[in-house]
Structures are given as structure tokens and as C-alpha cells.
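Aim 2, interim progress. The first record below pairs a target sequence with its C-alpha cells.
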Amino acid sequence: MLGEREGTVLDVRGWDVHGVDYVDVTLAYRDGTTATARLGRESVPEDLRHGQVVLVSSAMNLVVAIRRAETPDAPERPAPG
């Protein structure tokens, strides 16, 4: 069960364990559901921030990667809620 869907970033928090960078990302989807993922830095765009629209890749309903859905110059959408 692989898939990709559009989401909006609600929160991004970077942290590291013994020099290995991780990112916790909270996402909101158009259907009103949310998801939180802990990913390696390589699976998340640089400078990801609240309100950005992203494409979320998932496997077995777990987020495995996030990429930008729009060009960096495109306007951001307000986050739901």
C-alpha cells in the first residue's frame, strides 16, 4: 500500500541523537485528518515550515518522505484550524 497525498505542514521540529539529524513533522490533510512523522533529515525538504503545502509519500499508512508540492515562490496556504 504505497501512496502519495497532499498535506499542509502544521509543525516542524528538528533534533539529533548522537549527531544523527531527525525531523518530527505534523501534517494536516484535506479530509481533516492529521499525521505525525519522525523522519531522517534526508527525507524532508530543507527549511520546511508551518503552512507549506507538501506531497507526503507513505507506505502501509506510515509517512516515509515529504517533498515540496509547489515552487518556492508560490504563495503558502493557511494551515487548517
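The second target in this work package is listed in the same format:
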Amino acid sequence: MSEKNNDNSSKIDRRDFIKIIGGGAAAIATVGLVSCDSKKGGSENGLAEIPTDKMTYRTSKTGDKISLLGYGCMRFPIREKEDGTEEIDQDIVNELTDYAIAHGVNLFDTSPRYIRGWSETAMGIALSRHPRNNYYVMTKLSNFSKESRSREASIAMYHKSLKDMQVDYIDYYLIHSVGSSEPMRGRDPKEGPIGAVKERIFDNGMLDFMLEEKKAGRIRNLGWSFHGDIEVYDYMLQLHDEGRVEWDFVMIQLNYIDWKYAQAPRNVRADYLYAELEKRNIPAVVMEPLLGGRLANIPQHLAIELKQRNPDKSIASWAFRYCGSLPNVLTSLSGMRILEHLQDNIRTHSPLVPLTDEEKELLENIADQIMETSAINCTACEYCMPCPYGIDIAGIISHYNKCVAAGNIAESSQDENYRKARQAFLIGYDRTVPKLRQASHCIHCNQCVPLCPQKLDIPMELMKIHNYAEDLRQGRL
């Protein structure tokens, strides 16, 4: 494996690593709680209760023991440098990575597109400080744009992933976001989404290239992630059925909302996606088990119902148990930004306790109720960003959805909690999103629309939020 000269990439030897996992909770608390989030993260006693040897693992088609909790590396925090520019906070990435590995998490999922293109490099620095056999890397051929779809550009992207992650081979390599509505170049529009797939992996010879890399051992497992058109999903599985390519895994969006409610034009129902993989014995890698955090912040009356049943468990733990209870799920990916979230998810999976039939029915009933709210089906993936006009799309919609969950969206000034809801929405909006990045500045250029995996009409949603905010400010409800 190649090495990089970087102050953050100094190796962790075995003695130091044992100190992290056994020498104590206090040492981790001192480092992790201050750096990751000074207000959150639990106590030293809470850290001591988190097991290091009880993680649930699933076995891949190639015999890898994969942690049922996988680390999604698309939401690490950003910090400002002295010159005013921004960078990924490498110290936090290192600390969270060390803690995850120390507690049994061994799969790390990234992409050339994540976090403004910084994620692979950051993970290369963090992971290369550990023995290579302690972790599995998952990254993607993210050749969405017209400029990146040529054979030369796609191969260059692949080799850059190897270099940035400081590895000689990739354990799990995906064709990223198959079925999305990215524009095609030079093909008949009548070919639709399948034409886009053909352009990305067939016309340029990339599928054959990846299969050759797999034969050479530089790609150990080959798969794809899915967003969008069911016709493309079936087409990709037909390639497997015909023996053109054996898919080792497929990444799908799955959670207890999407199980039966992810219908077009947003996405395909997860029960269909999962069943098609299960009958072919293709392991499923789950993305968005929390639906962009929405299932950790469900409406209060529903959260109370879950807490009454299990006071010691988080609301998020129910969503992870839903995914982990499905036997063909290889791992569920979570983008954990702070130590507190990482700790809670480790507890849930160490070991994972499958749902009972009664609990599964409860969650599906909760899904029915959530779908009756006005929440926007955004997962805060930030594929739509950066906006060319500086709009904080993910921040705006996330604030709106949090207010929906907290019951702070008023339909009328006659509502019993109108004053409280008005204050919570407007003050929270101004605190969360700088005024110059709020929805009022959207010019409806529509550049974000084809980038959204959930097929949202983002400008329309931003207009709805802007109009609601103005109605509150002007007292028009």
C-alpha cells in the first residue's frame, strides 16, 4: 500500500490501538468528546458500557465478515482554515474512524463525489493508520457528469480512488447511482435511463475494465447502487441472470418508510428491491436506514410510543433493527458526524436484537402515520449541492422536516400552539441557515433537480418553505 507524508497519517501501532480500546474510556472521552462535539457524546461511564467485542457481523459472498453497522463517509464536518477557505475536519475523521474500528465497525463507504470530493482522501489518511486487514473500503465509479463518462476519465477516477484512499485494492466497488436521471451525451433520448447506464459502463468499455480489475484482484467485490427507475433496476439484474456479470452486492435505499411508500417518481419500493436481490442471493447493502435522519426525529407522539416500549433505546435504534432483521442485509450504512451517534449505533448492533413480529407491525403502522405528515422526502444527501447561487438546500429542508417532527408547523393562526410553532420555525430558520442562503434567494435555475436521488422538485419545495416562512413573518396564516 502506498504511503503519504501527512502529519495526520502517522501509523497507529498495535500497542497504541490497544490503549484506545482497552485503556480506556477516559482517554477516548478526552479526545472524542472535545473534538467531535463538546456538548454531546455521553459520559465516561457511558463510553465504558459500549462493548468492543459484540458487534454483529454478516458474511459476504467472498467470505468477508462485515460489520452490520457500516460507516457512511459523506457527512463528516467541515472547518474553516485561517485563510477563510474550508476543509474537512481531519482530526474528527481520524478520531471517529479510530473509535469505530476499536468497537468492531470494519466497513467504510465513500465516493469521489462525497464532501466536495474530499471524502476519499480523508478516509485514506484515517484508515491507513490501521493495519489493512482491519477494515474494508467501499467506493464508487461516480462518473455521472458528461465530462467524466469517457473511458479515459472513468479509468482516471478509478485510479485516483486507489491513490486517495492509499490502498492497492478496493474491497467493494460500485457503479454509483444507477438509474438516476443524469443527462445523456450523444444518445437517443428515447433510450431513457437504460441509455444512460449503457453510456456509463458499456459504450466506454468500463464494465469490461472493472471485470478485468476484479480478475486481477484489485476489485474484490463488484456491485452498484440504485436510485430511480425500476426499468434500470430490472435491466441490471437481467445482466446477472444472463451470466454477463455476477453482482456481488447491490446498494439500495431501505427503511421502514421506503419499504412500501417509496413509489415513483421518488424511488422504488424497498420491499420489491430487497425481494429481487434475496431471490438471487445477492446481498443488500442498505443506504439511508434513517432516511437522512428523519427516522431519528419522528413526530413526538410516535417517539413517545417507542420510548414507552423501550425507554433505554434510542428512536434511531428501531430503524436500524428494522433493516438488520432482514437476513439478506449485509450492512446498513450510517453517516455518523459525532461521537454520540456512533456510540448509539454501536450499542444497537452489539449485538443487534432482531425485531419481533409485533415490533415490525408497530413500525409499519408508524410509517403510515409519518406519511400523513407534510415532511419532505429529503435524505440530506447533499447531491444537489453546492448550489451555484449559494442556497443551503439540505439545511433548509432539514429545518422544515425537524419542525414537522416536533409539531411546529402551524396550519392557521388559530392553532393552539401557533405562537410556539411560529417562534420555533422562524428563530430556528435564521439560526440554522444564514439569510443569504435561505430559500428566498432561489432563482429556480433547476440545476439541482436532476441531481436529486429522491426525484424531488427542489425549487418547488424551497418555494413552499419560503412562502410558509413569509406567511409566518407577515402574520398571514
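Residues 458-474 form the longest helix (17 residues). This observation will shape the mutagenesis plan for the next reporting period.
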